[in-house]
Amino acid sequence: MAYQFDFGSLWEYRGVIADGVGLTIRLTAVGTVAGVGLGIAGAFARTSRSPALKAAVGAYVEFIRNTPFLIQLFFIFFGLPVLGVKLSEWQAASLAMVVNLAAYSTEIIRAGIQAVPKGQIEAAEALAMSRLQIFRHVILGPAMRKVWPALSSQIVIVMLGSSVCSQIAAEELTYAANFIQSRNFRAFEVYFVSTGLYLILAVGLRALLKLVGWSLFRRRRHV
Amino acid sequence: MPLVELAAIWKSFGQNPVLKGIDLTVEEGQVIAMIGRSGSGKSTLLRSINGLERIDDGTILIDGEKIGSKDADLRTLRLQVGMVFQQFNLFPHLSARENVMLAPMVVKKASRKAAGALADAMLAKVGLSDRAGHYPDQLSGGQQQRVAIARSLAMEPRVLLCDEVTSALDPELVNEVLAVVRQLAKEGMTLIMVTHEMRFAREVCDKLVFMHQGRIHEEGSPAELFSAPKTPELAQFIGLVEAAG
Ligand SMILES: Nc1ncnc2c1ncn2[C@@H]1O[C@H](COP(=O)(O)OP(=O)(O)OP(=O)(O)O)[C@@H](O)[C@H]1O
Ligand SMILES: [Mg+2]
After folding, report:
1. CB contact (8 A) between residue A142 and residue B75
2. Which residue from A140, A223, A124 is spatially nearest to B106, judged by alpha carbons?
3. Is residue A173 part of a domain?
4. pTM for the whole structure
5. Which residue, by CA, sits nearest to atom 29 of ligand 1?
6. Helix (H, G, I), strand (E, B) or coil at B61
């Protein structure tokens, strides 16, 4: 007998799904704001004249980029308690997202910084600006503008990667889907719907990031 | 007391000595033109005067004060010594007016209003009041260079260094920039400029400095040096330039 599709059976779980979507969005928001913020700080640190600081940030970036996200998450959630750092599922998932995106955005933003012509930095130096002032007012804007598309893609990747947080029972969208499937055994319907929701989230996030980029980098006219 | 005093400046890039014991004094209000072949160390010398290059040996005195090599010392130095580059180097994300406003606001903590008024005055001085809201990529090379001059002047430097400020310009845009420099000279600004514009150097400068292989080979009034060069190198250089020009 052919399989009888029954999307109606998901209706009673709509609250669980909504909560899952909500948590995915919150994880992404925290990860993005803190991760990109730390990425900016990390990229600035990599322009430092202190070899020790540069090496430390470089090691962090390479460490995160060359290990699986799931292992990073397990380490934070299951490993850290051994050292007395006990985090809730939500805290551990957020921290993993932040730590991960911070490393990738450090690297992405660094590429943007390197693209700023040296002459502009020298001109700023000749105007008696300090290193931090030059970074903030001369380098950061053009660098972020240049790498915004790459950064946006990375943010979407990290949003989709948050799916992995279901493995520590952080109740985001994938966790919700697994939970429903274990109750009603409607694997096709559940994962069909959750796939669609991820798709909507990703497309929506890209549009949002495009808007943010546009408003951050548009030329303001105040003559 | 001279405004700028360089004594025994040495500078190498790796094994390559580029400045080999430069002594130079510049009085307040003097306009100095530096000429010399490509690679003779003119840019390196200018860049050393405002700390973009670290010298290996020698002393730099500005208004009698010795400049150290710490960051804070360099910033004090740069508050007195402005610089305009061959390639303009405007900040592309800022309008002409914002380019001029930036350093007064972040370095001198001027209010936005005060910096704006200052920028308007400086842009008027270089004849660009009507371009204040334009971005660098909407300006011609000559206009960009005039904005760059306005941006330096807004910091009220005591000396302005100009490194071949017209060399990147199309010929028809050279004069509008030279006119601004000429006006600055007339107003008593102390200028040290590297230039290939011999006629301009002859007309505007008080002192001509001929650099050759990392040394000041000859210096004196432009009239003297142009009409009666003492060294064969300068004679040849002038001949070359006049033949080319
Ligand atoms: N950052 C650097 N690293 C290594 N060598 C350099 C550097 N800057 C300049 N040099 C070398 O120093 C010498 C002097 O260069 P400088 O730019 O001061 O010459 P210049 O007189 O300004 O020449 P031009 O008329 O071509 O501008 C050249 O041999 C150049 O190759
Ligand atoms: Mg040069």
Report:
1. no
2. A124
3. yes
4. 0.92
5. B39
6. strand
